[in-house]
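Dear colleague,

Thank you for sharing your sequence with our group. We've completed the structure prediction you requested, and as agreed, I am returning the results in plain text so they can be pasted directly into your records. Please verify that the sequence below matches your submission; if there's any discrepancy, let me know and we will rerun it promptly.
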Amino acid sequence: MLLRVGSRGSRLALTQAERAAERVRRPGVEIVLVPITTAGDRDRTKPFGEIGARGVFVKELEEALLGRRVDVAVHSAKDMTSSDTAGLVVGAYLSREDPRDALCGASELWPGMRVGTASVRRKAQLLTLEPGLAIEPLRGNIDTRLRKRGERGLDAVVLAACGLDRLGLGREIGRRFSAEELLPEAGQGALALQVRAGEEGLVSDTDDAETRRRVEAERACVFAIGGGCLAPVAAYHDGETLTALVAAEDGSWHERRSGDDPAALAAELSALAEA
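Please find the predicted structure tokens below.
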């Protein structure tokens, strides 16, 4: 049996796809990795808002699944849209790794500090922590953003800790922000194995039930709020409690609420955002 595993072509994405492939490998199954270029990969300079909504790193992989060019698509769960695409399902979530955001280049924040990030979620929360920061847009893969930090003379960049860890770049991290400081993106730290509906058996043996429970609650909450890459919205389940956040991009206000019901949390936060 040939199992074609689709992935973005970056070093991190292929590393993640290889991890997934090892988990689904079994006797009699030949696995082939299929690199696919997404809209987010083709344009690494424009803000996400000029390319499209959340899902700019996912759409082409989903099209390859629907077109039967691949059998499994490996995504960083945080890149996925908050609702499932018709005809496709997440057949498995691999066990979650560190979901926190990481500060690279420094260990503290200070007024006037130049920090690079393309995420409005990170920008809003960083400015809440230190209003005097100078947040500068910065896109590209991990290696590119680490290099640009030096080229542009930035004091630090903020990246997902899990990606740095997966590439063996944990030494670049000066500080791992707690969830109380920077609430993570929904799904951050988890890998999602997406398949065509009805073909969950291809990957279901690798599914981590606890990761699924937490990530699905986060995705449901963000979907109900209506957030994504273009909105400072976050949701994170620590295993006991789901916490969600809405904020102004300039850090001038933010609201957090915690509870058990994603829909109830979303309704409360949506009302606050509209007030």
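Summary note from our side: The mean pLDDT is 91.

Kind regards,
the structure core
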